[in-house]
Design goal:
Layout (H helix, E strand, L loop, with lengths): L1 E4 L6 E4 L3 E3 L2 E3 L5 H6 L8 E7 L4 E8 L7 E7 L1 E8 L10 E7 L5 E4 L3 E7 L4 E7 L8 E3 L17 E2 L1 H5 L10
Parallel strand pairs: 6-14
Antiparallel strand pairs: 1-2, 2-10, 3-4, 5-12, 6-11, 6-13, 7-10, 7-12, 8-9, 8-11
């Protein structure tokens, strides 16, 4: 895998090496040793799959509060997404800055979101499936979120979402009290 760090410290794009023949292709989606070499958390005690049949489905912004902060590596298995990572680490030089990236099943890239960052995505095609490797297990009491359209961040979403869960709609504006 090729690792490219983005402008937010700890956010990486992972580009797989594709090995193909007449049957299709093979790619590695995770390697503990390669993650370790790049300073990423090599533990993955939980894997998740998000199935999104509807174009324009929005998920996020989501994160877990301390001490259950989680890093996540997302891969678009089918379809495509517009992904946003927002740095919530008060001691980071990019605190409250965000980075966008499009992921799809053609380029097969993944994004690594470090602990202390929130993530959200909008599906840009139908039948989008996202696979996550998580560095921590889901802890319901630590789950946090804020609105995707929080005016404090002015995220340039490519279009208005068509489908958002009631839970994500119930989130208020970002509050620094939620990150501790």
């Amino acid at each position: 895998m090729d690792f490219q760090q983005l402008s937010i410290p700890g956010v990486w794009i992972l580009t797989p090496v594709l090995v193909g023949d007449e049957r299709g292709f093979f790619r590695r989606s995770f390697c503990r040793d390669e993650f370790q070499q790049h300073g990423l958390d090599p533990e993955a005690p939980q894997g998740n799959i998000s199935v999104n049949p509807t174009y324009g489905t929005l998920r996020g912004f989501h994160f877990q509060s301390a001490p259950n902060e989680e890093a996540k590596t997302l891969t678009c298995v089918t379809g495509s997404i517009f992904n946003v990572v927002l740095d919530l680490r008060p001691n980071s030089p990019t605190f409250l800055k965000w980075e966008t990236l499009e992921l799809d099943d053609v380029e097969c890239k993944s994004i690594h979101v470090p602990k202390g960052c929130a993530n959200a995505y909008l599906t840009t095609s139908e039948n989008t499936i996202i696979h996550y490797y998580m560095s921590e297990r889901y802890v319901p009491g630590a789950a946090r979120g804020f609105r995707y359209d929080d005016p404090a961040f002015k995220i340039p979403w490519p279009f208005s979402p068509h489908l958002i869960s009631q839970k994500d709609l119930s989130y208020g504006a970002f509050s620094a009290d939620e990150i501790g």
